[in-house]
Structures are given as C-alpha cells and as structure tokens.
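Friendly challenge for the regulars: who can give me the structure tokens for this chain first? No prize, just bragging rights.
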Amino acid sequence: LVARQQLDVVRARETVVFNDTLRNAALAYLALVEAQGQRANRRADLDDASALLRQTRAFVTSGKGSNADTSRIAADVERRRQRLAMSESDVAVASAELARQLRLDPATTLFALEEQAVPVELLEESDTLERLVDGALQARPELEALRAGVDAAEAAQSAAKWRPWLPHVLLGVSAGGFAGGAGNEMGRMDGRADFDVLAVWEIENLGLGTDAARATAASRERQAALSLSQTRDAVVTEVTTAWHRLVASRRRLMISQERLKQAGESLRLHRLRIRSLVGLPLEAQQSVESLSQARQDRLEAIVDFNRGQVALLRSVGRPLGGAD
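First reply, four minutes later:
Bragging rights claimed.
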C-alpha cells in the first residue's frame, strides 16, 4: 500500500514538471510576441516621425518655420531609427530563448504568426474566484502528490503500530525416506514428509526500538499533513493573486485601447493644422511621442494580460494544452 501511494506521488510530480514546462514555453513565446510587437511599433513610430519631418520641411519652405524645427525632428527620426535597429536584436534573442525552451537547434529562427500582439482568452471571464480556488484544490498535482504522501505516511504509521503484534511466519516442508536398524544394517525404509510452521515476535531493543519506530512514523505523518496544509494555503494565495492581477490587467487593456485611439486622433488633427499653416511642428512632435507611448502601453497591456491568463491557468492546475 505504501509503495502504491509513493508511485502516485511520483506520477503527480511528473505532472507538475509537465505543467511548468508548458508554462515556461508559453511565457517564452509571449516574449517573442512582445519583441515582434515592439519592432512593429517602432517601425510605425519611425514612419510617423518621417512623415512629420517631410511636413516640417514643407512648412519651413513656406516661410512659416525655422531650420531649427527641421533639425530637431530629424534628430528624433534618427533616434527612432536606432531604436528600430535595436528591436531587431531583441526579436533574435527572444527567438533563441524560445528555441531553448523547446529544445530546438539554437540556430533555428522562430517567429510568431501575428505581427502585433492580440489578447488571448484562455479562461472564461465569468469564472469566479471561488470556482477557481475550488478547482485548484482539486486539480493541482502538487496537492495530489502531498495527499498521496499523507496516505503513505498513515499506512507506514499503521504498520509501525501493529508490527510488534504481528509475527514473522516461516513455513517449511521436507520429504524423504526414513529407516532404522541394528549396527550397520538399514531396514524398513519408508517415506516421510514434514511440515514446519514457525512464528516469531520481534521487540527491538527491549521495546525501546519499537517505540522509537512508532514515534518516527507518527512524526512523518504529522509532517506530511502539515506540508499538505501549508501547500493548500499557498495554492489558494497563488490563485487569488493571479485572479486579481488578471482583473486589473483586463481593465488596463480597455484603458490602453481608448488611449491609443485618442493619441492617434490627436496626431491626425495636428497634421491637419500644419497643412493649414496654423499649427506648429513642435506640437505635432509631441503628439508623435504621445502616440508612440500609447502604442507601447497597449502592447505591454496585451502581453501582461496574456501572461496573466497563463499564470492563472497554471495556478488552477489546468494544462495549457487543454485551453481553447
């Protein structure tokens, strides 16, 4: 019985490692998605700054501005071009890390199909915290391993308790011939069969060893039960933390979408003012920077939301491969 429970412990720990491996691979993939998203954002930022530079040059040619404006925006264009070049290396690094997680050749180039990150729903939004906690307490393989460990410790304690009262039983059988006679003469040979049963009760060290074995088994059972209780509390805390973070990241996702829309509209209006020779290029440059930051915040919000989905899915004990 103890051996079967220990086998269950090993199987549950194998599931733990499997789930952790899936989580790490998913996080590495999301890092690649983020790197590609940053590259796409910086490419869009460069396009916006380059368009503004062309407008500024036309603005100066019309006599409404100075060459200082052109130089300032040209410097900003070069800065964004450098950032775009750096993002290329970030994509390569993220690809190498994902290849390592998947145990592929490090020279393999991996890329996400989507150029821009998109929110991924791995869990139902209607799932309540109470449902997720209850599901985690039933599904987490760590708890399954510890429950099996407690059962094994209880079985071992029961064995230690009853061992002095249960004898070691030895069963023997022998067969052959039996004869006798006077002097050197053997006669009246006849067959014979013997059965032997031996029962031995063992008390170690005059009972002191037996008491020590019982105390050791009881201590191990209490330790296993305490470890199970502590891990159960840790699982509840982990699920609760992941759930609250996901709720916050969902709100951030909605806010970032609205901010990105407003930043894009602001840049569009400033460009119209420049074409009408009313606005200043410096005002539009601020809008370009605001839109760049809004794009970055939107990307971070999406990736943070997706990572929160992965973390919560792992915390409730559901394998990523089972997500739709």
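The CA atoms of residues 71 and 305 lie 40 Å apart. The first helix runs from residue 2 to 61. Your move, everyone else.
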